Amino acid sequence: PDRYDAAAAQLRWQEYWETNGTFVPRDDDSSERAYVLDMFPYPSGDLHMGHAEAFVMGDIVSRYLRLKGLDVLHPIGWDSFGLPAENAAIQRGTHPAEWTYANIDTQATSFRRYGLSLDWSRRLHTSDPEYYRWTQWLFLRFRERGLAYRKASFVNWCPKDQTVLANEQVVQGTCERCGTTVTKRQLTQWYFRVTEYAQRLLDDMGELEGGWPDRVLAMQRNWIGRSEGAYVDFAVTLGDGSHRAEPVRVFTTRPDTLYGATFFVIAPEAPLAAELVTDKHRAAFEAYLEQTKRITEIERQATDRPKTGVFLGVHATNPVDGAQIPVYAADYVLAEYGTGAVMGVPAHDQRDLDFARAHGLRVQMVVDTGQPDPAETGVATSGDGAYVSSGPLDGLTDKTAGIARIVEQLQDDGVGETAVTFRLRDWLLSRQRYWGAPIPIIHCPGCGEVAVPDDQLPVELPHLSGAALAPKGTSPLASATDWVNVACPQCGEPAKRDTDTMDTFVDSSWYFFRYCSPGYEGGPFDPDDVRRWMPVAQYVGGVEHAILHLLYMRFFTKVLFDMGLVDFVEPMRRLLNQGQVINQGRAMSKSLGNGVDLGAQIDAFGVDAVRLTVVFAGPPEEDIDWADVSPAGSLKFLQRAYRFATDVTSAPGTDPATGDRALRRETHRLLADVTAALESQRFNVAVARVMEMVNAGRRAVDTGAGPADPAVREAAEVITVALSLVAPYVAEEMWERLGHAPSVAHAPWPQVDPSLLVAETVTCVFQVQGKVRGRIEVAPDVTEDELRAAALADEGVLRALAGREVAKVIVRAPKLVSIVPGK
Ligand code: ANZ
Ligand code: ZN
C-alpha cells in the first residue's frame, strides 16, 4: 500500500515550496551567505536532457549548502535576446517576443517541475526593457572610459544571417549558429577594448586555480595568447627610389634571427600593403587581395596550405646590416596580429621557409643548431645553437642571450624595442539584427557620436515583426524611420540613432550582478547587495562557454572593479563544467533519431528518478550515455528508500545513542563518506553510499534491531536528508512520514559522530602455563600472527618464561594467547 506516488508528490511540493518561499534566501545576516549560479538558459524550446544534467548539479550544490546552514541564493533568468527568436519570427510572420516569452513560460514550468531549489522572485529576462536599460547604461559607462569605440575594419560576415560575427563565433571558418561559410566585409563597427585588460585577464587567473577546471584555464590562457618578443623597424625604399617617411614595424618573437631575414611580408588587407604597392604590381596585388577576402583566418593559418603571395615592387632595409629585402603581401600574415607585418626568416620559421621556397627567395641560416641546413632540407630549425653570420651575436650559443643582446642593440640604435603581443582581439559587439539591446548612441551631423542621456534609457526597440526583420545586410532597425530619426540630445538638430544592436554576450556578461538586486532602479545593481552575495561560490555550466562567455564576464567584472562598483576582480570562485547526455554513444540528434525526451522520461519515471539517474551515472564532468543507465532501476531504489522510511515505528526525537550500535556505526561510516563525496563534488559516489545505507537499514529492520530501534530511525533520517539533494520530492514525503515538519530543504545536515568511526577493540589475554601474565587491546580482526608476536614480546610473558624455551603457542584470536614453556 505504501508506495511513493511521484506525480502526486511533485504537484504537492512544488506548490508548498512556492507558497512558503522555501528557496528564497533570508538575506538577514543570521548566517553566512552562498551564491550558487547556473549559466542561465537560452529559451530555445522546452528543457532537454542537457538542461536536466546541468541544472541538477547546481541544485545539489545549493541544496547541500542550504542544509549546512548557509543562506543560499540560487536564482534563475533567461538569456532571451538572440538570433533564433528573430529567425522564428521571420518564418512565422510574428514578433520575436512571442516565440521568446512563450518558450520562457514553457521552460519555467519545466524548471519548477524538475524540483530545482530556485528563488523565482529574482527572475530576469535580458530582453526586458528594465534589464536592457542597464545593458545600455553599462555600454555608455564603458564608452566614457574609452572601452567602447567604433572602428572600420574587415569583419567576419555570415552571408546567411546577414550579420557580423565576432572571431569567437566563427567555428572552423563557419558561422557558429548556422554553419554557413563566413566571409569578410569592411564595416564600421562597435568594439569593446578587451585587449586593454589582456594582462589582467591572465594574471587574475591565479585566483581561479584550484576552483576552475584546469582545462578551462588553459583554454583562456591560449585564447589570450601572450607572446613576448620585440618590435623591429625597417626603412622602406619606395618604387621611385625614395624613402617612406616612417619606417615599418614588425613584431617578432625571434629578434635574434634578424640577420637571417631575407624578405618582408605584409598582410594583404593591411592598409600598408595598398599604400606601398607600385603601379606595376597593383593589378596583381588587388586580385590577390580579393582572393584573400574569400578565405577564413583559420585556413590562412593552416600550416599545410601552399604559401601564396605577391611582390609589391618595393624593398625594406634590414636595420642591422642594411640589406635590401623584397616586400610581399601574403595571406599567411594576419592584419590583426602584432603589427600586421613580419620579417621573413626562412631558415628558422617553417611558414617563412615554405614561402621562400615557393617564391625562390634566399635561405640564410643564422643559428647553427647542429641539424642539417634548412636551405637543403626544407625543414626550418628553431632550437638554441651557435649564432653564425650574425654580427655581434656570433659566439653566443643560447636564445635568451641572443635575444637580450640584439634587443639592446636595436634599442640603442632607436630601431626596435621589447614588446608583448596578445592574440586576444577587441570584442566586436555590433550586430545588424533586431532582437538585441539597441546601442544607445545618436549620430549627429554636427556633433558626431552623442550618447543617449541616462535619463532617456532604455532606448526601447521599435515594434518590428515578420518580414521587416528579414536579413538585408543592414540592420532592420534602419527601416524603422520614426525611431531612427531623432533630435540630437546635444544641439537639437535632426540626427539618427545607431541602428546596430549589441551582441548577446554583452547581456550575459553582467546578469549575475542583477540577480543580487532585482528591480533596483538606481543602477544595474546595488553595490551593497553585490558585496553581500558575491563572488559566486559555485558557477555551473557547459564547457562550450569556456572561452567566450567566461572571458567576457571576467572582463566586465574587472571594469566594474575599476569603476569602484565591486570590490573583487573575479566573479566566480568555483566553476563546474557538467558533461553531456548522449545516447548509444553519440550526441543526440534529430537525424540519428536517438533523442531522449526529458518530459517523456519524467512522465514515465518521475522527476526524482530522472534526477537520480543523471547524478548516479558518473562524475558530474563526464558524459552520460542514456543507453547505459536505468531510470526504472532508480525508481525502484527510491521506492525501497521510501518503504524503509515508512517502516520506522519509533517517535521523532528518539535518542539514537540507545540504538543498535552496529547499525549506527554503519550509518555514520557511510555518512562520513557521503559528506566527503559532496565536498569534492563526486555526487555519484554520494548516491552510491546512500544506497548502501538503505540496504543496511533494511537488513536491520528485517533481521536485526527491528523497526522500533532508534538507530533505524537515525539511519532513515540521514538517508532522507542526503537523498533530498538529488530526489527532493520523495525526500519531502519521507521526512513527513518520519514525523517532521516540512521542509527537509532546511533540515540540518547530519553530523558524523567520530566515536562511531573508531574501530572497536577487544582485550586479548596472554597466559603462560595457564596463568594470566599480560593483556593488550586489539582490533577485533587482528591476525593470529600479530597476536603471537605481541605475546612473545610482552614483558610479563618474558618474565614468566624466565629464559625457558617456548614449546608451544596456542592462539585463539582475538581473545587469548596461551604459551607452554619447554622443559
Ligand atoms: C621572425 C621569426 C623568426 C619569427 C623565427 C618566428 C621564428 P607567436 O608566437 O604566435 O606570437 N608573426 C608576427 N606577426 C604575425 C602576423 N600578423 N601574422 C602571422 N605571423 C606573424 O608568433 C610570433 C611570430 O609569428 C613572429 O616571430 C613572426 O614570425 C610571426 F625564427 O618573426 B617571427
Ligand atoms: Zn548635434
From TrEMBL:
Its EC number is 6.1.1.4. The keyword Aminoacyl-tRNA synthetase applies. InterPro entries: aa-tRNA-synth_I_CS (IPR001412), aa-tRNA-synth_Ia (IPR002300), Leu-tRNA-ligase (IPR002302), Leu_tRNA-synth_edit (IPR025709), M/V/L/I-tRNA-synth_anticd-bd (IPR013155), Rossmann-like_a/b/a_fold (IPR014729), tRNAsynth_Ia_anticodon-bd (IPR009080), Val/Leu/Ile-tRNA-synth_edit (IPR009008). PROSITE patterns: AA_TRNA_LIGASE_I. Coiled coil: none annotated. Residues 660-783 form the Methionyl/Valyl/Leucyl/Isoleucyl-tRNA synthetase anticodon-binding domain. A motif ('HIGH' region) lies at residues 41-51. Pfam families: Anticodon_1, tRNA-synt_1, tRNA-synt_1_2. GO terms for cellular component: cytosol. It is found in: Cytoplasm. NCBIfam families: leuS_bact. Belongs to the class-I aminoacyl-tRNA synthetase family. This is Leucine--tRNA ligase. It comes from Microlunatus antarcticus. The gene is leuS.
